[in-house]
Specification:
The complex is a heterodimer. Chain A is α/β, with parallel strands linked by helices. By secondary structure, chain B is mainly α. Chain B has a two-stranded antiparallel sheet. Chain B is globular and about 70 Å long. Classes of the chains: A alpha/beta, B mainly alpha.
């Protein structure tokens, strides 16, 4: 009996020692992280507080992905609005490059950096894909008989520099840069009084109360008022026609051309995220962008869903970067 | 008559079973988040937006969201009165007399009056909305940057007069508030100010951290020093509900507050803060016993509470008639309408009358529901004051910390709350009334922004402020008030000097 116990103990000791060696081996033999991606929920960080059109879009995409089960694990949107986009951006910058944390952002990434208010640049991230382009347009009140289109307006503004004022929401944000790009294209830089407002609502109120002559809005915000009446589009900051407002004057219509400017929304990953994981997530987003639901949402905000893969997304950002840095010089003076 | 037909239609929509349910749900959620520090109506509505996708009917969704919005106003006054913790800028003024009433065992009365006043004001505002929406909206649009400057400067002046203690100390606190508000982005040039390179400060300091830190935690730190304190209220709690006498004392304050809040609330961006300030100042000025203000005057609760509730109702006017959101929470409701394919604007009443009138009708119903919800709860809340402070205080700290973190998921916010707690503690030790601080913090950026926007518009010409009728009037009032106060003090001094000189 004693020898039985002894054998039992020996057996146990052997098993214990064996397991110490085998278990780590089992871990290494575990599933390849890339092919089993995603194994847990994916976090998408939005650098703004809940509710903006940026945030709503990322939530829409997450919803489409989850409803259609494109991925086996949930996609969760987290808002981090602190530090004027710096907090959200830095959080993703410092996250593990394992494909479970992404940043959803747009051209403000470049503009805030160009104004010297953000140390980080989109170049510190690996681009994943782009999902939408949002254009900007110059609006006048519906009953304003002074100008029929942007050409007439800028002609007038150039003749009378400093006479007219334009309301723009978000200081030195994409809207303001779009305005400057438009002024540059029409050769009217510096001819308008540029009045920044803290939010879209205030911009609209100021313009509707006739405190400014015109306003610069994106197609989401501005489009609503065009559709509900009371406001007309003088011109769009775009070379080609906007599908939502085909009658609006484009740069091409005015006989001009300039580098396109739009707010380009998309995903970024921490540098070093495995390429195959990035493409897997990007492919999933692409499927979401191609759904009817997404197209309807894009229509409702008067924008076009434009899918760009990682390379194309990076390319367009590089082009925008050069333009914006150039425009920023005027603003910084 | 068109309006009555519309209202009838609206009520038939609002009284549908599911809409009543969601109205109640919204009111309940709104009250809860109003009471809890941190999460405000704007953020809550934003988070619940995806839920509205699932709701078939847009009317139901909007009814719920609107309920959350004005429910939060009701809830916000609860913590102001019980714990001296303002949930948002509009509740700061309620703290002044509300908390003092609570300490004297009159918490139930204060809460009751706040609930009743809010109900009357909210309903009155909805009536005003029903009949006068379009012309009032036009009036609101006439407020441009120069008018805002006049209005917010007046607000700053009122904020100083609210503080107990010397005007000098009040001014010092006010200026501190202004300085703190400048941390972050310059509103016109976009350059960072006073951020010392930290990310946390880049966006500026957060109001919730300030309010919760200076008022809530600061108070707790200060109270930690006196070990004898066992409860917030040491005297007997007494009558829980307002008596007829209380009603008689406060009813005119309620009526006046409703009117002030209604008109000020229409102005986009103007809002509840200035309304509550103005109401308090008016009540103090015309009161027969002004010395009671700051010690627990019931009018000091009834007036501002009514004002901020009617302001939150009237802020729907620019949204429903012009499609302009007046503040962050309304902007979220706007987004919800957009999601359902409804574009708020001048044509809303024609294209979607069931939405327009349905929402208005639900506001009447919602106000009733909130009254029914809140009045019985008064008894419950008052019991909370009996909890030994040693248990209550840590619970408050826990909730406020969670609340503060929940707004931006940023740990820095917790540190800044602690900074403000220390500041609040020091202010109390040195006998500085902290009330002007959050008010200056909120109004300061508005003053600066509107000043610079106005100067940009006028090309540097200062006459823009006086050449326009509304801003001209406001600036004149501002100057007159300052001159009046100065004259008052000069006369006081003159009366003193003869007696000094006779004392040989």
């Amino acid at each position: 009996m004693k020898s039985d116990m002894k054998r039992f103990k020996k057996g146990m000791a052997f098993m214990l020692i064996l397991s110490f060696f085998v278990t780590p081996l089992l871990c290494f033999a575990a599933k390849d992280p890339v092919s089993s991606y995603p194994e847990k929920e994916i976090k998408v960080i939005v650098a703004y507080n809940a509710g903006g059109s940026n945030d709503l879009l990322s939530r829409k995409i997450a919803k489409i992905i989850m409803e259609n089960s494109y991925l086996p694990k949930p996609v969760i949107v987290v808002n981090m609005g602190g530090g004027n986009t710096a907090q959200g951006i830095n959080t993703v910058l410092q996250s593990k490059a394992d494909g479970y944390t992404f940043l959803f952002h747009h051209t403000a990434f470049i503009t805030v950096n160009a104004m010297g208010n953000l140390d980080v640049s989109y170049k510190d991230f690996d681009p994943v894909c782009g999902v939408m382009d949002m254009n900007f347009m110059l609006l006048a009140l519906g009953d304003d008989k002074r100008w029929a289109n942007a050409q007439e307006f800028f002609k007038d503004a150039k003749k009378n520099p400093g006479k007219y004022s334009v309301a723009v929401s978000g200081l030195a944000g994409p809207g303001h840069f779009a305005l400057m790009q438009m002024l540059k294209a029409y050769g009217a830089t510096g001819s308008l009084k540029e009045i920044p407002f803290a939010s879209g609502g205030e911009t609209v109120a100021a313009h509707m109360g006739k405190h400014t002559d015109v306003r610069m809005s994106n197609t989401d915000e501005g489009g609503r008022y065009v559709k509900s009446g009371g406001v007309k589009i003088l011109g769009v900051m775009s070379n080609k026609k906007l599908s939502a407002f085909p009658e609006a004057m484009t740069l091409q219509d005015a006989g001009l051309s300039a580098d396109d400017f739009a707010m380009r929304l998309g995903y970024f990953a921490p540098k070093g995220t495995p390429k195959s994981i990035i493409s897997k997530f990007a492919e999933t987003v692409k499927k979401a962008v191609e759904t009817e639901e997404y197209k309807n949402h894009a229509n409702s905000i008067n924008s076009l869903g434009v899918y760009r893969d990682a390379d194309a997304f990076k390319k367009i950002y590089d082009i925008d970067d050069v333009n914006i840095k150039d425009l920023a010089k005027t603003l910084k003076k | 008559m068109d309006i009555f037909n519309g209202l009838l239609q609206g009520f038939s929509v609002a009284l549908a079973g599911i809409n009543i349910l969601f109205c109640f749900l919204g009111a309940l959620i709104g009250t809860a988040i109003g009471v809890l520090p941190g999460l405000g109506p704007a953020a809550t509505i934003a988070l619940l937006l995806p839920l509205t996708y699932a709701m078939g009917s847009p009317v139901t969704a909007i009814i719920m969201l609107a309920g959350i919005y004005y429910g939060a106003q009701y809830g916000g006054s609860t913590t102001s009165i019980l714990l001296n913790l303002p949930g948002e800028a509009a509740s700061v003024v309620t703290c002044i007399d509300g908390y003092q009433m609570a300490r004297k065992g009159r918490a139930g009365v204060a809460l009751g009056v706040a609930a009743i006043g809010s109900f009357i004001a909210g309903t009155a505002a909805v009536v005003g909305l029903t009949f006068f929406a379009p012309p009032l909206a036009k009036f609101a649009l006439d407020f441009g940057p120069p008018e805002f400057f006049g209005l917010t400067s007046l607000g700053l002046l009122l904020a100083v007069t609210l503080s107990s203690g010397s005007i000098t100390k009040g001014l010092m606190v006010l200026i501190l508030g202004l300085l703190l508000s400048m941390v972050g982005f310059d509103p016109v040039s976009g350059k960072s100010r006073f951020t010392f390179g930290t990310i946390g400060l880049k966006g500026g300091l957060d109001f919730v951290c300030l309010a919760v830190g200076v008022f809530g935690l600061g108070e707790i730190f200060y109270n930690l020093e006196s070990s004898l304190k066992t409860e917030i209220v040491t005297t007997k709690i007494g009558k829980v509900f307002p008596t007829l006498k209380d009603w008689a004392d406060s009813k005119w304050a309620i009526y006046r507050g409703s009117a002030i809040g209604f008109f000020v609330g229409i102005i986009p961006g103007g809002g509840a803060v200035i309304a509550s300030l103005a109401s308090y100042a008016v009540e103090k000025k015309i009161s027969k016993h002004p010395e009671e203000f700051g010690e627990g005057a019931i009018e000091g609760v009834a007036g501002p509470e009514s004002a901020n509730n009617s302001a939150s109702s009237s802020s729907f006017i620019p949204l429903l008639t012009l499609g302009i959101p007046g503040n962050a929470a309304i902007a979220m409701i706007f987004a919800a309408l957009m999601i359902h394919g409804i574009t708020p604007g001048p044509f809303l009443v024609k294209e979607h009358p069931e939405v327009f009138w349905g929402v208005i009708a639900s506001m009447y119903i919602g106000n009733v529901m909130l009254l029914v919800l809140n009045l019985p709860l008064v008894g419950l809340w008052v019991q909370m004051l009996r909890i030994p402070y040693g248990i209550l205080a840590p619970i408050i700290v826990l909730f406020t910390t969670i609340g503060v973190y929940s707004t931006q998921n940023q740990v820095f916010d917790i540190y800044s709350m602690l900074f403000f707690a220390v500041l609040g503690y020091l202010m109390r030790k040195l006998n500085f009334d902290p009330v002007p601080l959050p008010l200056a913090f909120v109004l300061g950026p508005l003053v600066e922004r509107s000043l610079r926007q106005s100067l940009l518009l006028s090309g540097g010409d200062l006459t823009i402020f006086v050449s326009r009728p509304i801003s001209g009037t406001l600036i004149t009032v501002f100057v007159l008030l300052i001159l009046g106060q100065t004259a008052f003090y000069v006369r006081k001094k003159m009366y003193k000097s003869p007696s000094v000189s006779t004392r040989q």
